[in-house]
């Protein structure tokens, strides 16, 4: 199977975790930001997490450098464009990128400007390449929650024109859903779809609550349901897709090693699963790599791949027209 040539869909990819190292150097020079080095290999080493991180915070520390240069409209537009360009060049047909506007206000940009800049970069790539995309607005749990309504409101003007969903990201404490129910409801009332990071570092109960309290239609990661029958059953009953990110799950110790990843068991039991990158730079990966790893590790065939591809189309937040076009690539 030629993994590079397969049509691919990535539903879980972070903008700040997928920045080209050379771009960080270029932007730092333009913005007079001092970097620890201007050697691309050394910057790359600072941005890529080790294959086995001791914990999620160590993994998340790799975002500091790219975020430091992502404080202007031009930088956000460029990084967005380059991410969609990189994805298109490995035959990703549809990409949903998530980012946290709250992290990009250090130089005075408004949330509206931040969101519009990212969408503008995506639209430029869509015009040049055979790729479609959307943005998901991630609310970061370690930042003041009173900014969340502002971000939700700022994205409304671009809803279904490049922005589609609400997400919660950041370190995962047990029971976090209770603190965010009103925000998720506000987002839904305004027309956002909902996907929530849960069951990655945290327990399966978090997945159960992300669905039952926050109304999550998809779950970022969700691997912890393997040890939580109630959550597992709810995911199946509600047809909630899991955005699995195999390399990242191993790196952050959500799963000890790839061979123990539950994606095949989930797939064979009818749990909706998708394959995603999470962070192309931080995890030093591509969609081609992720697909290859899963297919080879779990001895899945081309028919299995296209079943997962179709699941990704079905559970994407794309418009019906885009979904129809994406289905043309399925065998």
Automatic annotation (TrEMBL):
One of its GO terms (biological process) is adenosine catabolic process. It catalyses: adenosine + H2O + H(+) = inosine + NH4(+); 2'-deoxyadenosine + H2O + H(+) = 2'-deoxyinosine + NH4(+). One of its GO terms (molecular function) is adenosine deaminase activity. InterPro entries: A_deaminase, A_deaminase_dom, Ado/ade_deaminase, Metal_Hydrolase. The record marks 221 as: Important for catalytic activity. One of its GO terms (cellular component) is cytosol. The keyword Flavoprotein does not apply. CDD domains: ADA. It holds the Pfam family A_deaminase. Transmembrane segments: none annotated. The active site is at residue 200. Residues 7-327 form the Adenosine deaminase domain. Keywords: Hydrolase, Metal-binding, Nucleotide metabolism, Zinc. It is an enzyme of class 3 (hydrolase). Its cofactor is Zn(2+). NCBIfam families: aden_deam. Catalyzes the hydrolytic deamination of adenosine and 2-deoxyadenosine. This is Adenosine deaminase. It comes from Photobacterium gaetbulicola Gung47.
């Amino acid at each position: 199977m030629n993994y590079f040539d397969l049509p691919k869909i990535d539903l879980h990819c972070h903008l700040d975790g997928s920045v080209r190292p050379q771009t960080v150097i270029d932007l730092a020079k333009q913005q007079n930001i001092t970097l620890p080095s201007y050697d691309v290999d050394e910057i790359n080493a600072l941005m890529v997490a080790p294959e086995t991180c001791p914990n999620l915070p160590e993994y998340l520390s790799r975002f500091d450098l790219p975020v430091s240069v992502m404080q202007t409209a031009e930088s956000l537009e460029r990084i967005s464009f380059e991410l969609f360009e990189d994805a298109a060049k490995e035959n990703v047909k549809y990409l949903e990128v998530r980012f946290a506007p709250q992290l990009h206000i250090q130089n005075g940009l408004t949330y509206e400007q931040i969101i519009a800049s990212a969408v503008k970069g995506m639209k430029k790539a869509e015009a040049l390449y055979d790729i479609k995309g959307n943005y998901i607005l991630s609310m970061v749990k370690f930042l003041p929650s009173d900014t969340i309504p502002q971000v939700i409101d700022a994205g409304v003007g671009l809803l279904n024109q490049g922005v589609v969903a609400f997400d919660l990201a950041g370190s995962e404490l047990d029971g976090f859903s209770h603190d965010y129910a009103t925000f998720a409801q506000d987002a839904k009332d305004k027309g956002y779809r909902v996907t929530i990071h849960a069951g990655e570092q945290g327990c399966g109960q978090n997945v159960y609550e992300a669905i039952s309290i926050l109304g999550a239609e998809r779950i970022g990661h969700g691997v912890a349901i393997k040890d939580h029958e109630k959550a597992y059953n709810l995911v199946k009953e509600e047809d909630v897709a899991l955005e699995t990110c195999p390399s990242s799950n191993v790196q952050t110790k959500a799963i000890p090693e790839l061979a123990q990843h539950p994606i095949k068991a989930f797939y064979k039991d009818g749990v909706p699963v998708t394959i995603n990158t999470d962070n192309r730079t931080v995890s030093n990966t591509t969609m081609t790599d992720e697909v290859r790893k899963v297919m080879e590790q779990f001895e899945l065939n081309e028919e299995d791949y296209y079943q997962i591809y179709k699941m990704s189309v079905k559970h994407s937040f794309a418009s019906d027209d885009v979904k129809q076009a994406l289905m043309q690539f399925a065998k």
